[in-house]
Amino acid sequence: MAYWLFKSEPDAWSWDMQKKKGAKGEPWSGVRNHTAKLNMKAMKKGDLGFFYHSNEQKAVVGIVEVIEEFQPDPTDEKGQFGLVVVKAVKDMPKPVTLADCKANPKLAQMSLVNSFRLSVQPVKTAEWKEVCKMGGLK
Question: Which domains does the chain have, with CATH numbers?
Answer without folding.
Answer: 3-134 (3.10.590.10)
